[in-house]
């Protein structure tokens, strides 16, 4: 059976007579043999088309003398059913009303009315359809009309991408979090998940018409942890428990951008059920010192303009705000500090940021925002090396202490060094970093005792003496990446700067935090 969406499917079967090949009349209680008409349509949402020799099981009873159990019928491409040559058709043997059930796909190994299935090993054979028609009165032309309903849910995965994008790395993906073993009851069409644990669903996407796609069925179930893994990236698809129900399809949509970033969302039957935890539909706040965006300095505006171009749901929030931040999936605080470089910032937003982080919020603190992390409850160990000045010609390298950390994924690392800008970069340094470590320290990649943070990157010239990028976490799953590198600048004094690494580091950081 093909799994194409259609509104309805009509099919007609005429029995020339309810008799065996030797012309013996089966329904001997009747004076004349009857012709029985079967027609069918298929319910909405997950559509189907019959294929030649599709096998359907039909049962019938009059509640008394007549019982047919799991009789196999075959379909042709037009949807007409016929009994196999060796089979006997279902017939009225008397004038009692009869009730009918039908299901697809037929199985000869029904045990206690149950068919066992595994959607990993044979997905097509698990696309269970079912219907029941009761109390069909006898007539000289009895007619039974089945409306098949879907007992399974369907997962659709669709990737789109710009023309010319190399998508080979995205053709094999994995869906984590679903259970795949279960049973189907042919008497009532109900399914039951029997697997104790979830199993990885490894999918090979089909490329057609500028799109990668896949569809397959799974047993209806409740899920609280569902992930999509593609090209080494992992996306959380649900924030809380979600019930996947029979007869509905669930679509994972992904957009693969030219720069390698990916936006992912999930929908139910064409309507978004919620904004899921990924960079494509995440609710992101950008925090800076201007009362509004246009009042920010050019560097902060450049960062904000990149963010709104990249992500669809971004809100600007000034540091003078005192509002609740709990609706945001991530807050990026990017602040140019204009005075008191060696002391903490004080802003009206401080209490809101502290509450947000303590209750599981995700934070990026960059440039002068690193001087607020104590007030925001991220760490008491605020940066102790704060100065500004010129002299960033050709950039400043960062020493990567943990090259396997996801924020450095797909970034060119030479030795352990990266450059956020290409050749020709020049700008004004703004450094808020941790310094004065002993020259021979060997534990910079581990948590340092006074702050509970982990050093991810340090000074490219003297890696054992400073911390420039650090990660912090709390017990409520709050997470923060603090960036205090002088070259983390979004507007240069030249027009020849390649910002690809700066962009990639930021994209990786956003995606990493959203999936914590």
Descriptive overview:
The chain is built from three helices and 35 strands. Helix content is 7%, strand content 35%. It is elongated and about 100 Å long. It has three domains: 13-150, Immunoglobulin-like (Sandwich), CATH 2.60.40; 153-272, Immunoglobulin-like (Sandwich), CATH 2.60.40.2630; 284-514, Class I glutamine amidotransferase (GATase) domain (Rossmann fold, 3-Layer(aba) Sandwich). The model is unreliable at 3-17, 19-28, 35-47, 268-281 and 439-447 (pLDDT under 50). Strand 22 and strand 23 (271-272) form a beta hairpin. It is mainly β and 516 residues long.
Quickly count the helices: 3
CATH superfamily of the largest domain: Class I glutamine amidotransferase (GATase) domain
Coarse shape: elongated
**Helix fraction bin:** under 10%
The parts where pLDDT drops under 50 for at least 5 residues are 3-17, 19-28, 35-47, 268-281, 439-447
